[in-house]
Amino acid sequence: MSAAGGLRGGIDLGGTKIHTAIVDAAGEVVGEARRPTPTGGGPQDVADEMAAALREAAEGAGVESEKLAGVGVGSPGDADEKTGVVSGARNLPGWEGSFPLAEALKQALGTEVRVGNDVQVATEAEFHLGAGREFQSLIGVFWGTGVGGGLVLDGEPWLGRGAAGEIGHMVVKRGGAKCPCGRKGCLEAYAGRSAMETEARRQQKEGHKTDLFKLMEKHEKPRLTSGIWERAIDHEDKLAEELIDRAVEALGTGIASAVNLIDPEAVIVGGGLGVRFGERYMDALTAEMAKHLFVDERPPAVRVVSLGDLGGAIGASLLVSD
User: CB–CB of 180/188 below 8 Å?
Assistant: First the structure.
């Protein structure tokens, strides 16, 4: 395949972190690196940081980026696999319009670059290599900065016309809370970490006590990360508990609605908050789903991702072998 023995790169571009991995022909990670996603600037600044993180992972694997068989990217927003252009990645700085991400990274890394939707590639990684291996149909639900979804039906990825799987923008409450997308009542408006932070700040201003922001400052984080939410829950912070419970309730409603439509065998839960809280809140999530499932005597299996933080980068690397 290449001078580097079939090694390929994968980049998982998240709202908080950029995860990169160098993956061999057997799907094993032989080098990895992660960096914070820039909070300012624009798409080119994000692309520069992605390239730097990939080169760092390649160095760890003892290979130059130019010698890789290629690099796959899982990106938020509308990622056009044919052109490599990413549009409307609203959780990233200054990315309201379109940006030729594949071309920018190709110039920086010296190898072919392919892009796909971040959650779809992570879902496919779990389907091929992780928690979804025993199933032929599944929904991936990635609970993090936003709430993303991916679909595999009858063993094949389902992309619709390119934007399928946007479970975070299913409406769980008409006229409800304002979502970062600008609409009201979306699942992401209740369960996305960005929207949860906005709500926590609003309630704190109204006089509700919370240690969330003290913990954020103490651990020198620029935003309420999944780890900060976990620490607050461990400290029995009442506001944090209420907002996580509210998120789980919305997730159960939205996931059950999606299950009613396509009747998959399984739901795979990932993302920063999903990995932190998936097992811990599994009973609450499945109980919430059960309230809304049409065929409640035959619910889908619900599993937490097994590839961990690097699942998105591993899934992105599969775009190269495609």
Answer: yes
Phi, psi of 209 (to 5 degrees): -80, 140
DSSP string, 131-178: TTTT-SSEEEEEESSSEEEEEEETTEE--TTTTTT-GGGSBSSTT-SB
pLDDT of residue 76: 87
Please report which residue ranges of 181-271 form alpha helices under DSSP H. Answer: 187-191, 193-205, 212-218, 226-234, 238-262
- Closest of 129, 180, 156 to residue 308, by C-alpha: 129
Residue 70 to residue 84: CA distance in whole angstroms: 13
Q: How far apart are CA 29 and CA 27, in angstroms?
A: 7
CA 261 to chain centre: 22
Q: What is the pTM of this model?
A: 0.86
The closest of 194, 142, 190, 193 to 165, measured between CA atoms, is 142
Predicted local distance difference test score (pLDDT) of residue 322: 56
CA 217 from chain centre, in angstroms, equals: 25
For 234, other C-beta atoms within 10 Å of its C-beta total: 9
Contact in structure between 253 and 292 (CB atoms under 8 Å): yes
Distance from chain centroid for Cα 35: 15
| Paired sense of beta strands 29-36 and 17-23, if any | antiparallel
**pLDDT at site 308:** 84
Decide if 56 contacts 48 (C-beta within 8 A).
no
What CA–CA distance (Å, rounded) separates 101 from 10? 14
Cα distance between residue 263 and residue 294, in whole Å? 10
What pLDDT is recorded for position 5? 66
| Rounded Cα gap, residues 248 and 178, in angstroms | 17
pLDDT score for 1: 39
Which residue ranges in the chain fall short of pLDDT 70? 1-5, 322
